[in-house]
Fold this protein.
Amino acid sequence: MAIAYLNGKWQAPEEAKISVLDRGFMFGDGVYEVMPVYWQQVFTLDEHLARLRRSLAEIRITPPFSDDEWKDLFAEAIERSGEETAFVYLQVTRGVAATRDHQYPVGVKPTVLVTVTAAPMLERKSVIPYRMVTKVDFRWGKGDIKVISLIANGLLKNEALDEGFDDAILIRDGLVTESTLSNLFIVKDGIIITPPKSKYLLHGITRKHIIELARSANLPLEERNISEEELADADEIWISSTGHEAWPVGELNGNIIGNGEGGVVWQSIDALFQESKKKLLNSSGS
């Protein structure tokens, strides 16, 4: 059952309401996190909270809760929902100001929204490789902050959908950044390659987890720039995000990647990822 927490009140998500003067509504002035839940436990929770603190600091919002308070709130939300496999969505905006003004208001309490919704995608009953297309990355220059204003991402994603693709891989000055909602990996000659952290891409929690898994298994991995030409010549391409975990790309710009299915290196990473989730179950005592 989907559940929402909004500024201290529990309710159905469709019943939650904010003021029209909330700066998240007026300006997209806020940040968010999406966290995966397996067996009623939030996966990589500490990493998500660390990124939340950084995002809030970058846009100059004082955290409304401590890490322990966030953890208690998420646990209660999951318990109230009754969901075993779910997404926890957290959004923090600057709050409700007296008037619409670009100047930050003083003494305003942040708006806090938490929702828990079922996530059948995380059950991975079917993993069908994506068809992707490259697009010019025209988004703003602070993509490392997880802000709620995603108009550019939405435009690029929907352009790709209208053209018959699942999503777009974004290119800035000849180099790959990420997709509209995921980080990106390629494989060439057995080496896993992913673009390095920068201000132009999100510092993904799932990306970080995959890098750690690969290195722990002694799989060769490089964090370096990927040119558009190298992307087109890759043996494998995958994306990574909370919802996708590691997800294969079978086609790019109408050209088949590998054999069009998940490649052998992706299969190894996916197996490692699923095993890491089982460790969460074992550690929770379930």
The CA atoms of residues 175 and 228 lie 6 Å apart. The chain has a mean pLDDT of 97.
